[in-house]
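#data-curation
PF: Archiving a pair of folding outputs for the training set. Convention for this channel: one message per protein, sequence first, structure tokens after, nothing in between. First:
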Amino acid sequence: MSTDDFFAALHPKLKGSPQQTPGYVESPLAYDAVWAIAIAFNRTIIELAKHGKLLEDFTYSDEFTKGVLYDSMQNTTFEGVSGRVSFTSEGDRIAETQIEQMHNGVYSILGFYDPYKDVINFRAGFKEHWVGGKHPRDETQMIQQLRTLDRFLFWSMVSLAAFGILLAICCLIFNITHRMRRLIQMSHPNTNNLMLIGIMLCLVTVFLLGLESDNVQNKENDRDRFFSPDNLYPWLCQARVWILMIGFTLSYGSMFAKIWNVHRLSTLAKKESKREARKSAGRGSFRTTTFSEIRTFSSLVQTQKVESWQLYSVVGALLAMDVLLLALWTGINPMRMEPHKFPPEEAKDTEDDVEYEPLLEQCVSTNDTIWMGVIFAYKGLFLIFGLFLAYETRSVKIKELNDSRFVGMSIYNVVVLCIITAPVTLIINKQHNAKFAFVALSIMFCCFLSMGVIFVPKVLEIYRRKKGDHNDSKKLDDSLPSREEEEKHQKLLAENEELKKQIQEKEEKVKILNERVRQRAAERARLTKEQEAANSKEEPPQPNRISPPRQTIAAEVARDDRHSDSALPSSTDDPSGLNSIHEL
């Protein structure tokens, strides 16, 4: 039966207009579906007969009959009134699909889709109608959107970094201009110059961290921003790491070299002072030995000489380790740019059926976790060891390194900021604006603090003297007492208090003795008067003859005097107490 024969037989049985009859358009499909089931059953009956089974005996637990029926339906194919009929393995019909559109309550045929040829055949002169005049999307459009730094944030950080570089250049010029002054010479200006170069490299890294790839969308939306070409972006990733690490090593390594030499020299001075103290231990009291040890240590530390090559060797060794580590990283696992994809975000205009997929550019490499762990471990030990040396030498002054104490203060600040920055950046790694701001501020804060702590005292000291010559004898930290001087001062105060107590005790004893002497003198005068009155009534005594009562009184007074004298301190007692008694 053809399609025309089917509709010719169907129309007489309809009670109304075919267009108003529900299911009229789908009636050919229903007719062919019944035929497909009948053909599949016939094939199933034939196949079951070969195995001695009947279709009427089918139960829902009969897996064999179910499999035969499924294969029969999948292999069924014929020309029906709706076109060619066949089915997929999922049971869907493979047939031409008629494309229709309802407009003003009336269906209009636009064309047919041929699944065998995968072609849509539109009818000649067709005209579709769309709401709003726009074609609807067959799927949600995904637009990739690159996350970029905030422009105000980028230019603010770059401006501060440029200002820091300008300050470093000014400090460098100041250091070179006044290099002949004793104040600058005693701080090893060439080592300070290395530190300033490292600070400038670290500040340049702030600008490199804000650079982004040369993306077309970025160019159109952000014309006032610098971009790196896509083919050069991996080199930019490498440059960030190289410049930051070398700059950090030059700046922090220069300070570390100074504090390392101060600790080394102070350790040698302590050993020498203890040796001298042991030699003089048998020639004086404990107090004298202690003061001698302090004076020996202080004089030895002050006279130690620091050669420039000793500082350069420390910085060079640290720089060689950085270059070796970075060369291995670059050669084995070079860095590359890889976008990080975030969950899609719906567009504000939901009618467009658009979703945005945010992307964030990141510098990554193979095994970057291992490389970063090695760098963090190496730099962490470097920072902690520098902090330990700064603490150990916090009160040591060396003439050849007059800014060592300011260097120690700068090391405290750098270590604290680095310990805070490293874990925080790992936590906010996906928040590009917050990460850039935090890292940039940490770098600049370290640089500004180091320059301020080390160079501001020098500038103030030099320009405080309007006519200063090149032979300044005053050291930069003369106003700062050393730890040895503080210990000596405290011991002197303690011994002074002890001597005051001893003198006060001696004065109390002297008062008691003087009172007893006065009482004895009064008693002696009274006894003498009584004796004289008694003798005047008796006969005059013989010459050179002492009466027994007078002998008894004299013996008693002499005995009391000896008792009183025994209470006085002997010459072997503290001479300070004896002198106090004589003065009284």
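PF: Second:
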Amino acid sequence: SCNGNTKLKKALLKKVRISAEKSLELFGDLPAEETAKIIPTKAEAFEVTKLKGSRVGFYTYKDVPVFIDVNGKGNIIPTVFGMWLCPAQMLVLTVDNGAFPHILNGADLMAPGVQLKLEDFPDFDADQPIGIAVPCGKVIAVGYTLMSSESLKKNGKTGKLVRVEHYLGDHLFLHAWKTSPSPHCSLPEDLEHLQELLNLPARAAIASELVEEEEEQKEEPQEELPAEDEQKDENNDQEEEEDEEQLPEVREKLSMEELLKMSFLQGLKASISSDDLPIIGSVFYSLHMQPNRPRGYKLDIKRSSYKKLVRFLQAMARDELITIKPLPKGEVQILTINEEHADYVEFAPYKTEASKKKASESSNSKKSNADDKSFRITKLLRPTADLFPVFSEIIEGAQKTQLYTRKEAVDTLWKYVALKECSKAGNRKVELDTALSRGAFRKQKKEGEIVTKEELATRFVAALQENYEISRDGVISVVKGCLEPIISREERRGGHKYVTRVKGLETYLLEPKDIAKELRKKFAASATVSDLPMGKGKGGAAPQEVVIQGKMNHQIKDYLCKQYEIPGKNIELFSK
């Protein structure tokens, strides 16, 4: 519960701005249009609220809690809502899928849960405000670092890294969720799947302004389309309906146990990929079971005979559909999927709750974003000299330089195992022959030794050489070996002046001169292009870097992700 709201006077509003600039290193470098989203120039609509029985207070702007004062001493940090509105105001660390369920339970962040190699951690001090984001890039918690980046690198990425002060689902979040009419207090689209996982109550009504806008849009006459465009739209609708008709729709009445089993199999067969494994059970439930339930049905594990998700997954493991590993606090981790199981093989995908939404989103994106830049990164594998005999035995006319997806490579492996009779049908053990012993295990295991199929598949894929196919607007480039990220580095250039250097753009089929021109217009800052030194024996054009004035790390990353679809994990930020 909260004490009454108090509107801030202009002098106190100025103190809040100063406190934000003092506490948050990146806040002062933000353009005025960004800070205006969370701190107004006038004191109206900006209020402070105190939580009863504590010193904790939070500042709201237009009914959105944007800052929180944890100890009542004026040392403010952004709330998750504030970070959704203005994500560049402080440093953010991204955690893996195994760590974020613990964060949502109120746990502090441990260093191993961060999705970064030790040498790639950005610079930060102890007791520095910091955000915690999930892989999609959205912040789910904020807190203070418990050690500096220098201490972290000395300790070897171990120990507790962040003391979490506010997170998705805590008392402040629930207060805003229940009472605020602002749409900015709803979950972003990338986090909507967490609503059922967090057991959030009914959302407050959306502001009356939005309702009025919708009514005005309904009253506005729609523009008449030319006959040709109408015909095209009708043809597109017919094509979408035909695609939908290819999948059966579940209409019969089903028990909760049957719904769980169907959603589980649908998630295994149509949603999750082998690259996602291993995966936390609760994460699999929220990302791959809930969206894949049959249309018109709701999943509720508590209404089933299992009562708990762990018991359901244990039952699936006893049926040998999956293998699991127990984790602390009653969680389990899904390790492997048995794609040879009769239930998996015989299961036919059906229409899901998510399929209709995806179809409408894809059709809308095709119409509204017809001129968007299409971009795709595909991981491909090339056989080594020792493993090439496995591919040449199965694929007629196979070439040593030929590239395969992970699925194609594993399928080739099992066809080879069947052809050479290295394993009996239904048996999960494989007897190694010369090619598998030499190629997959590098002679660490001898010919004739017995291994499990899971171990063989893991070692086989790891032995193949990584390649990455990058395509943009029909142009395709293949990168051999590790895919180097785009590097954005802030450097001090005398006094308080900074420049930001961006390199590695060519790898992602981006022209540095074009990017410099766009950044110059976007941020109204000077941007130039310079050649980088080339390594010995390297031919071709010299690589280039973009140099832009100011501390622009987070703005550049956000721009490249949104405008050119570069995954956030492929952009690394550094600051000197």
